[in-house]
Amino acid sequence: MKRIRYPVILILLLTAAFAAEDELQFSVERFTLDNGLTFLVVERHTAPVFSGYICVGAGSAYERIGDIGTAHLLEHMMSKGSRLIGTTDYEAEAELMVKEDSVWAKIDQARRATRRIRLGEPNKLDAHLKYIEKLEAVLDSLTATSSQYVIQNEFDMLYTRNGAASFNALTRYDFTSYYVSLPSNRIELWFAMESDRLKNLVLREFFPERDVVSEERRLSVENKSNSKLFEQLIGTAFIAHPYQIYWEWQSEINNLTRDDLMRFHDMYYTPQNLTVAVVGDVRLQQVKKLAQDYFGVIPRRPDPNPIYTVELEQTGERRVELLYEANPAVFISYHKVAYDHPDDPVFQVIERLIGQGRTSRLYKSLVLDQQICLDISVDVFPGNFLGDPHASAFNIYAYPMNGTTTQELEQAIYAELDKLKTDPVGDKELQKIKNSIDAAFIWEAYSNMGLARILAFSQNLTHNWEYLKTFRNSMKAVSAEDIMRVADHYFTGTNRTVATLIPANSGGGTR
Amino acid sequence: MKNICLLTLIIMLTAPLLFAVNPREMKFPPLQFEPANPVRFEIDNGIVIYFLEDHQLPVFSVTGYFNGGSVHDPKEKLGLSDLTATLMRSGGAGKRSPEQVDLDLDFISANTSSDADKDYFSISVSALKKDIALCFEIFSDMLIRPRFDSGKIALELANARERIRRQNDDPGRLTRRVYYQTVYEGHPYSYYPTLATLDNITEADIRAHYEKFYNPDNCILAVSGDMTLDELQSLLATYLMSWEKAGVSIEAIPEAKPKYRPGVYYVEKDINQAHLCFGHLSMDSKNPDRYAMDILNFAMGGGGFSSRLMMQVRTSAGLAYLVGSYLWTRPLNGTLFGYCQTRADAMSQALRMMLDIMADVKAGGITREEMDLAKESIINSYVFNYDTPSKIVEARAMLELMGFPSDQIKKNLEEYRRVTLEDCNEAARKYIDMENLAVVITGNRELFDKSPETFGTVTAVSLEIK
Fold first, then answer.
1. ipTM of this model?
2. CATH class of the domain at B40-239
3. What is the model's pTM?
4. CA A345, chain centre distance (Å)
């Protein structure tokens, strides 16, 4: 049964009091099931469609060395179906999966033994390698055998057949999310499908999917100069905190097991760690009933492990180079505070001030006036719109024009940042930022999916979606003095990491 | 089916945690949906307007579409359309210098864009309702009184050159470009600006290009948002009525015909994947067989996880993250192509698998189940093409610009419904051509499992920046 707690009612009353100055044209209903799962619902009857957005309060930052990639591979595997969806005979499949896992364990063990055999018993090496090959063939044949029971991609097909749009999932550092838009008469299908995969997940076709994730890394990081440079930047800026790992490495992906995934799932995919937002042509009463029917039976489990790690204090500038077959770029990172620190809204304002729009400081100065830069952008990393749950970073990405060195570009960026420390931002410029905060707040609510996403994120991060408003108000309260103080405190050489892409054909070394 | 129902029953009885209802068994009636019908009217100077009121949020958006497109750029001045479109936004407008336009638009957080597509031009602004008059003023200045500031022309030319210098950095974009350059050989669809063509562009060219295409009698506006028709009409009267008709004549560009040599086009790049893109010219955007072909392609590789290419190359073999096929119908002849990226030592394995799937579809067609799935998906998701007022007016404006009748949205849906399995399989035989494939392979051949020559005569593609 649903239970409405006092704080919820209190917050709703407060909302009413603030409604006059709140430009949002919709009302958000919140309820929490007994198992701790929180729902946010917005009725919008403009078109016969709705978006469902599920936010899990854990992402890649919650992995540990040895099982890096778990959150991402699990996100992929969540679309493989359940004990019912995706199979003609779950029992038969389950037996084969146990066999697959035990063969994989043997392969893993044998691969680890290879080095010892090569050094200690070289005469046995050939036989050992043949043994591994044989095991690999057994694993392949088991996968082939189990495929006879698999209804491939049935989970996706059910959504597709019913007219789903934007069906996808996303793994970030602090969140994993699952979302889809459907015609509104399919509301119950959505509840059935989403609750089924949470309750009855089956990790079928595991080994090929591991290869898919490995291919995704090649595509998205290894052969993409921006991502590759970014990986170096973040890996250098963070020594201790898990934000250091931009993307799971091949060495980790290739050794993940079903057990790794299920451990992560059991630990973090708990009702109290999930937020669900439903926005569109739906009725609150129906959503409440369906929520109870489909999600109410998921048992509450112990609270998941938090991240205790705090990033080490930086003790001097760090620099890293990437020699790569691409044109030059320079990426710069400064450590910053987490979302609940009073300086965080100031960073969000600085991001807009120097990095958003043609009149923003860096674009205007480097691209339009000095003409030494093709493009420049700024973000608050990892870039959740409310700031990040852990002390994170403020990043600048710049691409020099031919004839400008990355050092010259870097110096020009520092000159702009230094101005923030000494010259107060004028009233008109500050007003421009405040206008953009208001406009963004309104546009974010334009689409069902956009609204569902921000609601789910903010509820999951702060346990109170209305923090959106608090956050907006704290950004709008930022003063010229705040900007000077924060710029002076954080934009220092000691707090800086710089990653430079040097074209491989230039012979390397500092240009 | 019975077994499954029984299993469900047993599970439901023994484990109360499990399914309330089996999603597989759920049936839903078709969605009753008809997109709102926008107001369409024309003002004296020839501008056609599509308009829908939408008071949900205090915002509006307006987009102007123009016949033309970069296919009209002279071959020695490629890049002219892009530059002109960019400069209409960035080169100053009316009484405002380029800097003043930026300041005024950024201050109110207006979003703008101006683009030169191959087949048309577009320019748009969206912002908060309270700033609508200022936005219309600047928007109309951009359209009617662009300044083309010479300093900004030099800057945009320099930026265009820098983007060309960087055009081979990303293997995905590189592969796609080489594919289009190959299959559309000799046709403007294959043309991309070079450092040399940018050098030929003068301020006079930009002004002449603007005069030729950006005229009220060549313009369709799509307007939606928080305003009434009266408000819109008064804005049009104030800002756009004075724009004088020019009598537009745009020469026809011939359809693209295949001129390339079928075979392999090898792009050498030192990466650890092979980027693959293979296909041929297909059909234009008014071909009556496009509905059948669209459904066929959905089953082959266009329908994401429900398609054969995705299931076999990704789900079963684990060879790719992105894999599929794309049917792009275009006004002057479209193209059908398959694409994927795979680890370098699986290049031939993946390419062989994909070619076999395409050949199978040509020879044997698709199954009824595949067709039903594709049709249901297209029909049931149709609502998402028109679920916001801005999508509706933009779609209607584009359809009129491209010469479709006013009931095309409805007609499309009926046509998809009418497609039969025979239509699909006839389309497969007629429009898939395994003998005339251009196969683009980007990567390092030393790492491939088999040589590119395995798949035909190899032409090496030069990456020299010219």
1. 0.93
2. alpha beta
3. 0.93
4. 20
